[in-house]
Structures are given as C-alpha cells and as structure tokens.
C-alpha cells in the first residue's frame, strides 16, 4: 500500500488514511532517512488517536508513553542512539512489543533481529517535490 502526503497541511488526513488501512498491526516500524518525516508522521498518528500529551521523539529516553482518547497506551520508540541490542533487551522490549499496545518505532533497522515477525514495516521517503511517500 502507499500514501502520498503532498504537504504538511495534509498530514492529518494521511494519518487517518493510514490508521484505516494498517489492519490489526500493533508494532509499526518506520524506516526512512534523517529528516524523512518519521517523527512528524508519528505525531500526526498520535494526535489522530486523541493523544493530548506533548509528542516528542524519545531520542534520549528511548521510549515515550502516550495515552489515546480511549485510555490505551501508545509507545513511541526511537532506536537511533542504540549501540548494542543488549540495551533493548535491558529495557524489556518484549513487554512492549508483545503486550498488545500500539508500538511506533523509529530507526527499527538497528533492532531488526528482534522485530516481531508480524511488525508492519513502513518506509517514508521524501520525494523530489517535497512530498512524502509512505509505502508498506
């Protein structure tokens, strides 16, 4: 599947479309270069789900927890600074990935060996015209 986001002003519509098409996936891995829009799209997803917290990339904390409008937990991971998989083992990743909550992952290529088989892998690319393309 594929979604084109022509501009930042249409990102919330794209988030709604993505949520409608993602199926029952609970672990969503976002791939893309620095600046591709991973964090920005995750913010839009969380806002669409009714998160009222300030949504920031957990680059230093590794994981942020948000609560959606129905009281469900959403976990936002940023593995950019991971040096060894042991760091992810130590944080108890299995409780997150297999606990039934929505998990949104940035830089999943750094933990590819432990990604759940059923994780939805989404690639975000910046197109020549400045639009973004989501593909899975």
UniProtKB/TrEMBL annotation:
Molecular function via GO: ATP binding; metal ion binding
Listed GO CC annotations: cytoplasm
Gene3D superfamilies from the UniProt entry: P-loop containing nucleotide triphosphate hydrolases
GO biological processes: tRNA threonylcarbamoyladenosine modification
Annotated transmembrane regions: none
Main location: cytoplasm
ATP-binding among keywords: yes
Keyword field: ATP-binding, Cytoplasm, Magnesium, Metal-binding, Nucleotide-binding, tRNA processing
Cellular localization per UniProt: Cytoplasm
InterPro entries noted in UniProt: P-loop_NTPase (IPR027417), T6A_TsaE (IPR003442)
PANTHER family from the UniProt entry: TRNA THREONYLCARBAMOYLADENOSINE BIOSYNTHESIS PROTEIN TSAE (PTHR33540:SF2)
Family per similarity comment: Belongs to the TsaE family.
Protein name: tRNA threonylcarbamoyladenosine biosynthesis protein TsaE
